[in-house]
Amino acid sequence: MTQYQIDIYIEDSFFSAVHEELPITQDKWRSHFQKWLQLVNNDLNPAKEYEISLVLTNDQEIQELNNQFRHKNKPTDVLAFASLDDEFDMAEVVDCIPLGDIIISVETAKRQAKTQQHSLETELLWLASHGFLHLLGWDHPDDESLNQMLAQQQKLVTTN
Known about the structure:
Elements: E1 5-12, H1 26-39, E2 49-57, H2 59-70, E3 78-82, E4 96-105, H3 106-116, H4 120-135, H5 143-158
Parallel strand pairs: 1-2, 2-4
Antiparallel strand pairs: 3-4
Helix pairs in contact: 3-4, 4-5
C-alpha cells in the first residue's frame, strides 16, 4: 500500500479557549490523514509531501465563514476549502502540496456526538473525513453522490 507523507497544521481556537486538551493529538491526526490517503483512490504522487490545515473552532466563527463563503448565515459542522486545482499542477513547482483547510465547529460536533450517542473523538473524525474527501474533489450535489460520500467516510473512520 502506498505511503503518503502529511504535514498537519492545527489551529485550535476552541479547546485552548476553554482550557481543555485536544481529544485527538496532532500525531494522531497525521496518522488518520495518512491512512485515509492510502485508502482513497486518488491521483496524488506518493513521492510528494502533502499539507492539511485543520481548524477547530466555535459556532460563531464557523457561521461567519459559512456566511462569507456559502452565503448561509448559520453555523455548520464542517467546512472544507480545497487547494488543489485541475488547471494548475502545483506538484511541478513545489515539494509540499497544500490539500486545503478543514474547519470544524467543536460546539456543533459536541451536540451531534450527543445526538448520535458516540464520543466527541468519533464525531470529530467523521467531520474531518467529510472535509478531507471534499479536499480531494468529492462532492454531494444529489442524494446518490451524498450516499457514496457517506459510505466512503464510514470506510475511512472504521479503518482507524
